[in-house]
Records
---
Amino acid sequence: MWAYAARRILYAVPIAIGVTVVCFCLVFLAPGDPIQMLLPPDASQADLEYLKKLYGFDQPIPVQYVKWLMRAIGGDLGVSLQTSRPVLDEVSRALSNTVIISLGAVMLAFSLGFALGTTAAYFVGRPIDRVVTGVSVVGVSVPNYWLGIVLIIIFAVNLGLLPATGMGSQGSDHFRLSNWSQLKYAILPVITMSMVPLGIIMRNTRSAVAEVLAHDFVQTLRAKGLGELAVLRHAVRNALPQILAVMGLQFGYLVGGSILIETIFTWPGTGFLLSKAILTRDIPVLQGAILILALCFVATNLAVDLVQTAVDPRIKRA
Amino acid sequence: MADIMVGAGFQGTDEATAALKVRGYWQTVGYRLRYDYVTLFFTGMIVLIALGSIFAPLLAPFDPLKTSMAYRLKPIGFRQFLLGTDELGRDMLSRLIWGGRMSLLMGLTPVALATVLGGTLGVVAGFVGGRLNMLIMRTMDVFYAFPSVLLAVAVSGTMGGGMSNGLIALTLVFIPPLCRIAETATAQVRNLDFVEAARASGAGTGSIIRHHILGNVLAPVLIYASSLISVSILLAAGLSFLGLGVEPPTPDWGLMLSTLRQAIYVEPYVCALPGVAIFITSLSFNLVSDGLRQAMDVRV
Amino acid sequence: MGLELPITGAGASTSTPVRPLVEVKNLTVKFVNREATVQAVNGVSLEMAPGEVLCIIGESGSGKSVTMRALIRLLPKGRAAISGHMRVGDYDILSLSEREITEVRGSTISMIFQEPMTALDPVYTIGDQIAETVVRHEGCSQKVGMARALELLQVVKVPSAERRLTAYPHELSGGLRQRAMIALALSCRPSLLLADEPTTALDATVQIQVLILLRKLQKELGMGVIFVTHDLGVAAQIADKVAVMYAGRIVEYGSVRDVLLRPSHPYTIGMLASTVLGQTRDADIEAIPGSPPDLRRLPPGCSFAPRCRYADNECRSVVPAATAVAPGRLVRCFKAGSPPPGLLPGP
């Protein structure tokens, strides 16, 4: 087990390095001179020369990459062209807000999706199964940015029950769970965000539990006199590690892909930060946010894999 | 067989197994599809949407680009505007019909390109194996390490908006998963007996790939690709929504949704319309893909 | 390592004629789906005394497994149509409610399966799975259940049982897993054990060990066993009585000696002739010509008639009734009363 964990962690290192290479190269994708991208338009010639020297733009690209990577590891991801604040500060402040709604969404999706998926698996082919299957297809087919708008129309515009956008009082961007007046701002984003993982968790649970129920040992369980509920408990226990893994991955996708939903709800997370950066062509922020989000995704995948290995007695990864 | 045994938790019906009629594979697929009314219905839906987009110039009652200050944000059913008008007084129905063109194009093109590129890379990696496989697959792993939305936004966001940049970004998103599917399928088939036999009987690499590998790799790759169409439509509309895809004033569902968003307090129902169009299209592709996968009994 | 399981009253079944432990009358099972109706079991009747081992022999598709699953009502609801009458002990199986049948399963009647690799839940330990049954039927605590599980593992001769108690199924060999399965089945002192080819998936040497163990435990506990197999050698080892099934019917029934040494149904004869068992070394193995009937379209007469070289018009049009050719010996064959000289297996 430990050997496997060590190997799995080692295996993640080249991927993480690959991710940094891709993020580094993003600057070259942008039209125009990369140094121009990193400087405000009104920068002086002297500033430009200084930066050129500092970032090593006069040196070959691999050298530039290593320098950039060293600075990044040291926590220097450059400075936002808009706010002149360090990119790392901007991103880490936003990240916690994104993690909060992503966590809420994935927990909501898991509890609903797991319960409904299990029910559907037990009643394969019956009406309840069709309803669940239908809901899960809708979940993955619905454009969630549109769903967000529809929810705003219903709950904010028509019913006036919940706030439409933002995160509490003017300019507030620090979220506290204990504060109801702030919490209600998170409700619509969380529901909107949970739709895709809900569909996916439901679908996966249904097929995983149905597969377990078709195994031979289920007959042994019945033959030893267990009631249907107890049989289902065994099936769920068998399917759970797999579903938890799906849930973990979905969490990773949500954190990384929050841009559309945060844009709609102007939720001050990483997605919103990204969308502002795109609009203002703030390349340092764009690059830094993408780097951190992608590394978070790699870490999440790694964690999911390790937890699954620890939890599931069937997996013996020597 | 699977359709009658599924979820039974019951194994002892060798009787039943032995007694079932044996049908050809494609016959079975056809038989299953013929009675799969959901798949049939949504295939019809896709055909309708496609026809509507192709014949948009004939079908649309108005010019989708013609603005009118007098008729801004009119509700559904206002005079001659069947589905109302947008924030610049353009006819919604006409824009929705024309928008289908863009959305289908943005949905299908990246998947098609990625199927060809990713599929080829995957077949090569799976067939050649060794170092080349390592190189290709590890590169794919790196791109896999980005959530799809993030990768699309990263590429098109830095390159700047525009339709072609959007297409490139989406293609890049879909290459890794398709490559992986093709690689797995190829590597599996490569080691099967009949390929060994073909090799032993002197068949060249080219003919092995043509006859044996493609036949067994194509089905899972195409099925998987079909499931990506819906994702692609959603993502493409999402990019347009963020201002990264199609540029105004071209009618595109994602872009329409984005520009109408400011008007939700004025005319909420009209604002929701482009999303309905995206939803129906993506739902149709999803359900048809599911139906095909089930009928063909392919696991991906 | 004392055997803590008390011997049930059934042990004293030798002289006085006791009520049969199992009584099956005219059992039929049909599987219905939208394409066809499969007639898996077509009127099986049998009786079995307490403490007896009955072997049901037949090839796959003969309905032997289905018959046994019907006895414990493990057939899929909705798709399997069961009719007839079945009594085990004091229970009228078909009239029990869902709740009552779960009480019976695992306590009065328990079952072991063919594949020890897949018959145990992979994510629970062996001990947990045995204890679960004990807790379920005796309402004791988990701790008591685990203690019993340990005892049972010792009874079925699992080496270093304490360690195996906390092992997961995949950590045990096939033979040990099957022993654990037997321990599980015996955990609540069943009076009837249903064994569905429990040794087929095992290596030959392990197979014999498990058979000997089963026979020993059966004697000690005085439980009745219905043992399904297609292996005549296994049947010869373990059975008191033998029932031969073909196309969902019992075609021959009697004591193991009678049936295996003096078979009188042409199918049994053919089956015996096609095994290596007891043949001279250079004799050709005869196979029965043809293949078993399509269970969706059974022939109107004797199901074996199309493959039988003695069949005449009567055989092809009327299903022969089970007739007693000797005390405790039933055969479903028109020709069985006076076997023609050529009917016995040739040299």
Note: The first strand of chain C starts at residue 22 and ends at 32.
---
Amino acid sequence: MSTILEVKAITKRYGGLTAVNAVSFDVAEGEILSVIGPNGAGKSTLFKLISSFVPATSGEVLFRGAKISDLAPHKVARMGVVRTFQETTIFKSMTVRENIIVAHQLRAKASLLGFFIGSAQARADEEAFGASADDIVDFLGLGAIRDELASNLPQGHLRALGMAIGLATNPTVLLLDEPFAGMNHDETMNMVANVRRLRDERGVTVLLVEHDMPAVMKISDRIVVINFGEKIAEGTPAEIQANPRVIEAYLGSEDAAIGM
Amino acid sequence: MNTQKLLGVAGFLFAVFVLVPWGIAASGRWDFYYTLTSVALLSIGAAGVWLTFYIGRINIGQGAYALMGGYVSAVLIMKAGISFWATLPLAGLFCAVISVLIGLPILRLRGVYFAMVTLVLTEVTRLTALALSVTNGAKGITSIPLPGELSLFGLTIVPDFATMQNPKLAFYLLAATLMVLSYAALWRIVNSRLGHLCRSLQQNEELASSIGVNTAYLRVLAYAISSFFGGIAGAVFVAISQSIYPSSFVVTDSVNFMLYCFLGGLGYVFGPMLGTLLLYFGWDLLSIAKQYQLLIYSSAMIALMLAVPNGVLSLLDRKGGRK
């Protein structure tokens, strides 16, 4: 498998505080890689750096060899690196289907003027977006809430919708920010299966930040562990579970005997 | 478009272009022409303000563009001898270009910060008009000739206003036509993917940019269209009054444009039109209350905002049982 994303010594300082300190790792095409770490370890900042939502203080992120860490977020998205949000960030006053349709912007071939006058290309786009949105709705099993207003949805469905929005952009790399947060066991297992299928059936490379350890261990090909803004470990789930530095970071060294 | 909508549009056009002139001729209230012409023009400006609301920005600066549009038209007519009809689109375009320059930095601001800057903009424009020599300072530009003949390929579309028996009717028809065109454009924007994208901006700019919407571009575009409407409205106002002064459009006018949108309904394309009609016409009718005019007007406005916070048009939805 070839490397698709390279994070090279990326650093972010807010005044005197170093949120992310010289973190480096590679993501291989088609893998599911999780970034974990205790609260406040800098995971979310790292995500914002990769998707270029905040500028890096130093270091860079390369996507297929090209630097993306100083581009505008919509340009990074256009290249195929798309993030979902930790907060339940969706378009609240739109239905589920409308949310997904509007998220097809990256695939629009018609210009804004074309959409205004209703050109042939614009109508073709609209039709394609509608069909693709229905496809995504079915893929994620959201059929029952297709025309529900997003503001009426429970947490679990909002996460799924966030992922659906990400999918609509036809990403090469999808960054999922805490996709299992606020979900019960069944919802989590369902989501784990969906993320797997995303990779297996659509070939999407997935990078995720997550707290839910059982889910992370189940889903990840590899795991990167961050603590106090620095990478402390990297490896397969089995390696990470056995890594003393990780256990120390999570449990404190004296509790290491408990194991993870 | 379904039959019901088509009938609605036909009914509206009939009312504007046939019923109103007929009603005024029958009642002899010729002064209503001026009022209704103003309503039509102000609602064009309000349509622009409404569009900036639609991308999630509170715009209290439309008066600035109305003033700019007015001056562009006046200066071009008086100094360059250009026909009013040519200055009309030029006034709109001038405002659109200026609004792009101003919008690029200020549209990054949100909420009350953007609102404050736009509020200041009206005052800055007034002071600029006062200071420049091309606008003739405080003396303003007066004795502007009425619009001349508009002809296309030798075919007269609009005769010279100066030769007309009833220029008031002609101005009303001009304003109403422009209003219909503006709202048709606005309706089309809102009901195309363009509107869908604007709504995505209004609801969550961060998410919009993460799905590939060029938010900065779309914001500036919406603001430029908004200012284009403002400029057009201002230019026609100047043609009617045949004069323009730095105080022709002031902060109060900017605030009014915003109020028309609020009261008509921010969620409805035709909200600003209805809001303008109710508020402007209401103010006019209340002149019979003499010194209590402002008191009654403002009390009614407070009552309306409390009773229908989503605008007058939201009453329709409530009756229809829709959400």
Note: Residues 107 and 256 of chain B are 21 Å apart (CA to CA).
